Amino acid sequence: MSETVENSQRPCPKVIAGIPAYNQENNIGEVIRKASKYVDEVIVADDGSTDNTAQVAEAARAIVIRSEFNQGAGQATKTCFRIAKERDADVLVTLDSDGQHNAEEIPRFLAPVIEREADLVIGSRFLDDNYNIPRYRRFGINVITSLLNIASKVKVSDSQSCFRAYGKRAIDSLHITEPGFAFSIELLVQARRKGLAISEVPISCIYHSESHTRNPVVHGVGVALSVVRLRLKDCRKGLC
Questions:
Q1: Phi-psi region of 59 (alpha: psi -120 to 50; beta: other; left: phi over 0)
Q2: What is residue 211's predicted lDDT score, i.e. its pLDDT?
């Protein structure tokens, strides 16, 4: 690993980047090239793309796992977890394929995991005043995050960020069952339930015409309902 946190007292950890991708032939190559500077391997879970996403990713020397049809962001991220586990990764960094996340910021995720200060590190868009998130998206994210944080001792500021780092405990113990974007909430609920250490680091975010092709209202309502469902499930088990 070329530019990660170094520690002469322990073996160099194996870091893998996992990138779920759907029809991102124009962006995926650059994302892979930037991420490759900070990790040992890049996995691209091609979620049934109908363009040349897989070919571009392979040309950029990523390990590409292709699905025959579009199954959703959760299922693609689940594939990243599976391959990371099979390849015995110490850290899995997940980021979006559309260039929204700045792969140059990967090093700031690694120290808390490598130093065993955190099992899960979330890249938060709200930890400084430089975020440029459209107001309607910010409102939806805040609602979803507030629902997640109700009656929880462990609070987060950005529950919807998929720019994250998972340590070995998280890779081995977290299991995605939600096929769509609600997986981001599901993993946080599971991590808190299992007592994993969660921290956040500030990140930047770039929005452009190819970011979030889904209707944001439909997306937001769907994820919010999933938060309520997952929290109620925990409450019935006495885990609120």
A1: alpha
A2: 52
Q: What is the third-level CATH fold of 15-236?
A: Spore Coat Polysaccharide Biosynthesis Protein SpsA; Chain A (3.90.550)
| Sequential DSSP letters for 5-42 | ---TTSPPPPEEEEEEESS-TTTHHHHHHHHTTTSSEE
Handedness of CA 11, 57, 82, 155 (dihedral sign): positive
- The amino acid occupying position 170 is A
Torsion of CA 236, 184, 138, 122, to 10 degrees: 110
Q: Provide the pLDDT for residue 144.
A: 83
State whether residue 159 is helix, strand or coil: coil
Q: In the 8-state DSSP scheme, what is residue 213?
A: -
pLDDT averaged per 10 residues in sequence order, the chain, 240 residues: 51 94 97 98 98 98 96 96 98 96 95 95 85 74 84 87 97 94 92 95 79 53 63 58
Question: What is the C-alpha to C-alpha distance for residues 29 and 20, in angstroms, rounded to an integer?
Answer: 13
Whether the Cβ atoms of residue 31 and residue 22 lie closer than 8 Å to each other: no
Would you call 152 exposed, middle or buried from its count of C-beta atoms within 10 A (0-12, 13-18, 19+)?
middle
The CA R_g of the chain, rounded to the nearest whole Å, is 17
Q: Residue 110 — φ and ψ, nearest 5°?
A: -75, -40
